[in-house]
Amino acid sequence: MRQSLRRSCAACAKSKTSCDLRTPRCSRCIKRKVECAYANEPSAGPATPGWQNGASTNPLDGPGTLTNYRFGSLDPFDSYPQTRLPREHVQRLIYSFLHKIAFQYYPLDLNATSNPFLISWWPLALGDPVLFHVSLQTACLDEELLAQKGFQTSELLMADSVALLRRKVESMSLAVQDGTMNSVITLATIEFGKGNTKVGEMHVNGLKRLVDMRGGINAVRQTSPLTARMVSWVSMLIMGHPQFETQDDFGIGDGIPPTSEWQFDSTALDDQLFDLSTIEVEYAVKNVFNRLRNIFQRARNITFPATQLHDLTCFVIHRLLLSAPATTIPPTSPMTESIRYGIILYMFITQGPTYYSHAVILNKIMIRFMENLEHLASTSRVYDSLDVWFGAVGMVASAGTAHHRWFINRARNIAAALQLENFSDTLVHIKTVLWLEKPQSEDLFRSHWDTVFNLADQSAEHDLCQKASNTEEVGHTRHYHDGHHDPKDDGYL
Question: Which InterPro entries does the protein's record reference (predicted)?
């Protein structure tokens, strides 16, 4: 139980000084070399990379470097692009972007020497006033959200970002630069997060024209992997459906390419796996299922890099959503569609949020998943391992939403029908369908099945779901402020 509502560390609270809430030690305690203890876990983001025992091991924190604003001049020549903000504020935002935002945007790589926002994005920003302003804006929004005192500074940066962008896109050669495209997709994300959906979509549509000018998303990827990844993924999150085609199974075409493992033989490697061939499933979905399962089986023996998983996730979700039929009730094949949306949800779960929250599109996919499972339940079939997997995916994907109770109840029915008594029983079934071995993967699913099997938790779970249903708004996005402005005011393409 929380002993205090205080979020700052004890040392900062005692001195009545603002605490930046970094973990495991805040910046003030590190500088003063004193103990840093929190009464409650701060919610200011991931731990500060590279700090150990009061000293920084991060290569970004060397003496006299560009980011060490607390210990001296950040840059005596102000060689970074100029803004209308006070110099000290700019330095603080730069520090925040490099030590916090970069890792929040790209949690797939928490290494300061390889994170693409540090080694690729930031060097571009130092030479591109638009991208520099946009980067500061992301850090500023984070700062203002914590302070809860309005968004005056980030709005100033937004106005300047758009003004600079309008001038830049007047030149075709400048319009197609990586810095321009990175700026546009980030502005789209910010507007979408504010609730200005139309403005966000306008940015995405303008960005698609820039991609076409570059020769397509695969051409962008050949020279700018980070830009291509972010553009294809975030544009889908904002628009609610894919904005770019995919290549075929052999990497032919101008769309999003498959990973190298995708082209391996899709014949099942393990005879103990659930046999999908006995079920009538459309080829497009069955092909994705079989190839994914083989990739995951091979990943048991080799390391599966996080960036590679992101590329695979992006390709698979695009491929499945692009091949999905228009919404028809009832669906022509509820089994095919249940597997389709089950795979999509599982890939979202396995990868986790990247660049920006995927909660909005996840909710849409989850509703389609539920609709098809309901139609599937009306058919004459006996529960099997596939149903256990459906239940597991649904419970994890719906955690914290009003839909969670629906999946819990369905999982209880499946467990009773198959005489499953504990999580170990269910895990055997789940792993025969589609499963990628990752650290903590089992724990992620275990907690939900523990609720299914522990009847004493049913009343508590009911209260939790009831609370979620009373507070959740379908398609909800976090608004940075309540104001909206005319999309025409931000037009530039």
Answer: Fun_TF, Zn2-C6_fun-type_DNA-bd_sf, Zn2Cys6_DnaBD
Supply the DSSP symbol for 186. Answer: H
Which residues lie across from 51 on neighbouring strands?
Answer: 56
State residue 481's pLDDT score: 37
66: Cβ contacts below 8 Å, ≥ 6 apart: 74, 75, 80, 94
> Of 204, 210, 172, nearest to 186 (Cα)?
204
- Residue 396, H or E segment: helix 385-397
Could you give the angle at the alpha carbon of 95 between the alpha carbons of 91 and 101, nearest 5°?
130
Contact 176, 206 (CB under 8 A): no
As a whole number of angstroms, the distance between CA 119 and CA 117 comes to 6
426 Cβ neighbours under 8 A, 6+ residues apart:
388, 392, 415, 420, 449
Identify the residue whose tokens are 């920084």: 56
- Which residues contact residue 224 at a Cβ distance below 8 angstroms, ignoring those fewer than 6 apart? 178, 181
Residue with tokens 């029908």: 417
| Distance (Å) of CA 317 to CA 37, 285, 311, 361, 409 | 42, 11, 10, 11, 27
Looking at the chain, the whole-number percentage of residues with pLDDT higher than 90 is 61
Distances (CA, A) of 142 to 29, 116, 153: 21, 20, 11
pLDDT for res 133: 97
3 state DSSP class of 356? strand
Q: Is 75 helix (H, G, I), strand (E, B) or coil?
A: coil
Q: What is the pLDDT of residues 44-95, one digit of tens each?
A: 333 444 434 434 444 344 433 344 433 334 454 467 899 999 999 999 999 9
- For residue 340, is pLDDT > 80? yes
Closest CA to 403 of 364, 449, 459, 460: 364
479 backbone dihedrals φ, ψ, rounded to 5°: -95, 135
CB atoms < 10 A from the CB of 208, how many? 18
- The reported pLDDT for the residue numbered 445 is 95
Matching residue, tokens 């589609």? 434
Residue 388 and residue 430 in contact, taking contact as beta carbons nearer than 8 Å? yes
User: What residues contact 374, with CB distance under 8 A and at least 6 apart?
Assistant: none
CB 262 within 8 A of CB 312: yes
Element (H, E) at 55: strand 55-56
The pLDDT tens digits for 420-450 are 999 999 999 999 999 999 888 899 999 999 9
Full DSSP string of 436-479 = ---TTHHHHHHHHHHHHH-GGGHHHHHHHHHHHHHH--TT----
Q: What is the pTM of this model?
A: 0.78
Q: At what angle do helices 441-453 and 423-431 cross, to 10 degrees?
A: 130
117 Ramachandran zone, left/alpha/beta (phi>0; psi -120 to 50): alpha
Helix (H) or strand (E) holding 52: strand 51-52
Assess contact for 50 and 56: CB atoms under 8 A. Answer: yes
423: left (phi over 0), alpha (psi -120 to 50) or beta: alpha
